[in-house]
Design goal:
Elements (H helix, E strand, L loop, with lengths): L1 H11 L3 H16 L7 E10 L8 E12 L2 E13 L9 E6 L5 E3 L7
Antiparallel strand pairs: 1-2, 1-4, 2-3, 4-5
Length: 113
Amino acid sequence: MREAARAARGRYAPRVEEWVDDAAASLEKLVGSPMAGAVHGTVRIVSISEPTKRGRYQEAQLQVEVAGPGIETAIVPTDVVLDRKYWPAVGTVLPARIAPSGAMDVNWDVLAR
């Protein structure tokens, strides 16, 4: 009996990740988040400043090319604090969530992998 119940739940229940993504998208729209309506896309580093100090964490000034489904490709300036050990090179492509408003949430953590 338990196995049949588990099989039925697994067959009809949406994956947890899909449910979480849907809930997050609804909440972003409800509260007027600048990330409302964001799509999964990429950013490609077009230019990046050189590290200037000996400190581990430094601010980088970048120009990134933003691309995603339904998003017009554009080059956008941005600043981010990065670990000098994982300083990216020009041409590096990173995953990001990109909103129609122009806001973006880049996954910088992939540089450390």
